[in-house]
Specification:
Largest interface: A-B, 53 and 43 residues
Order of helices and strands of chain B: HHHHEEEEEEEEEEHE
Strand content of chain B: 25-35%
Helix content of chain B: 25-40%
Order of helices and strands of chain A: HHHHHHHH
Shape of chain B: elongated
Structural class of chain A: mainly alpha
Number of helices of chain B: 5
Number of strands of chain A: 0
Structural class of chain B: alpha+beta
Oligomer: heterodimer
Distance between the termini of chain A: 33 Å
Radius of gyration of chain B: 24 Å
Strand content of chain A: under 5%
């Protein structure tokens, strides 16, 4: 197991504020970006981000044991925001036109922007597990195996979820998911 | 490295996590990746403008320092009188959740927007909405209802003197439940042939919570004798 990246962060709950400030500086932008992307609302994203970091502090022991705290935080943030959306039953996908301009994020240029666009507009039509898999696959650009490990599901299950998403949208899959056998 | 690192890898690099020398070398030579990493600095700047650390810290502190919430506000004083031989009329609109042994559990949500069956997983609650639990005991003689929140905190809801209630027949359990706080809370109904202690049920709930890695929505049945029914609620 790789060493915890948090090994470089002193403290934890015992040094409270300093630890939180370091978490904020290291991971705040990424978590806030994820929350804002999914919730499409800056104030809701702020709330969600605070919820996510509160979970990190409450689960400090586990959090500090993660080989990649960022990956853990993005998983929690994604899951939390998708649940918020389900709870609100918000027609957020219909409000796409009013949403802020999606900024470029990725090497694929226009292609990547389109992928984010499709993901953002299409998520609501899928179950929570597919939504989570899609976000980590397309936004985080995790591999099929990485997504499966993160969500604690089998590779075939995640492959099936991603293919279902790809089949119903115009978005393409990378080679690691591949064509139907 | 012939391919660009993933977005996650670049973010990890930016956060100071160990991603390997190869990635660092790639970024040093790849303008696209370098620009991407640089954009994370701007992203952090946006955050600090939108949510300065002081306000962020205050919000996190409020969430982590939240007092042990009364997960439910129910008339537990009535619990001691529960014999659960009931003649309570039941809504014809409810959909029963069958449990083995001829038992069933009904969960009805009521609030300003009327009444509905709790069928979502999770079931989202609006502010002020309360949950009523209906129970048909079937072959089971005892029942206990607890809830567990995202922090793994178990709250006893329906029990008697620290043990399962004696049940038979069909009834709505007394009063309704109002979940306070935020996030998810999982309601667990445990039916058994002999009374279980709260400690036993609480420990089993925490074990299931740990097995689900703190994700209450993914909790499986508690390791207890009898049958169970679970439903997750998303608190307003």
């Amino acid at each position: 197991m790789p060493p915890s990246a948090l090994g470089v962060i002193d403290g934890g709950q015992r040094s409270g504020r300093a630890w939180l400030e370091e978490l904020y500086a290291k991971y705040g932008g990424a978590v806030f970006g994820r929350c804002r992307f999914l919730l499409k609302n800056g104030h809701a994203a702020e709330d969600a981000m605070q919820d996510v970091f509160a979970k990190a502090i409450i689960n400090e022991r586990r959090f500090r044991g993660e080989s990649s705290p960022l990956t853990w935080l993005l998983k929690i943030a994604t899951h939390h925001c998708l649940n918020v959306l389900r709870g609100e039953k918000a027609a957020w996908h219909d409000q796409y036109e009013q949403a802020q301009v999606v900024r470029g994020e990725g090497h694929g240029g226009t292609e990547m922007l389109e992928a984010r666009d499709v993901v953002q507009r299409s998520l609501k039509a899928f179950d929570l597990e597919t939504q989570s898999a899609v976000v980590h696959y397309y936004l985080d650009e995790m591999t099929l195996e990485e997504v499966a490990a993160l969500l604690e599901r089998s590779v075939p299950t995640i492959r099936k979820r991603l293919r279902a998403f790809a089949d119903q949208t115009s978005i393409s899959l990378r080679d690691d998911v591949g064509a139907e056998p | 490295m012939s391919e660009h690192p993933s977005m996650l890898t670049l973010r990890r690099l930016h956060a100071g996590e160990a991603v390997g020398d190869e990635v660092q070398a790639h970024v040093a030579l790849c303008p696209a990746c370098a620009a991407k990493v640089h954009s994370f600095v701007a992203e952090q700047g946006e955050l600090e403008q939108a949510l300065p650390f002081e306000r962020f810290a205050a919000g996190v502190k409020q969430r982590t320092a939240r007092p042990v919430r009364r997960a439910v506000t129910v008339g537990l004083a009535l619990a001691a009188t529960l014999a659960l031989v009931f003649a309570v009329s039941r809504s014809s609109e409810t959909t029963t959740n069958r449990v083995k042994g001829g038992a069933s559990v009904d969960l009805v949500v009521a609030g300003g927007g009327g009444q509905r069956q709790a069928a979502g997983e999770p079931e989202a609650l609006a502010p002020g909405e309360r949950v009523r639990v209906g129970l048909t005991a079937g072959v089971w003689r005892y029942a206990m209802v607890v809830s567990i929140d995202e922090r793994g905190m178990v709250t006893p809801i329906y029990l008697e003197n620290g043990r399962s209630l004696s049940v038979n027949g069909t009834a709505w359990l007394p009063d309704s439940l109002e979940f306070t706080g935020q996030g998810l809370e999982r309601l667990v109904v445990v039916l058994s042939q002999s009374p279980l202690t709260l400690d036993t049920v609480s420990q089993a709930a925490k074990t299931a919570y740990d097995a689900a890695h703190g994700d209450v929505a993914r909790m499986t049945d508690l390791e207890l004798p009898g049958e169970q029914f679970q439903r997750t609620f998303l608190k307003p």
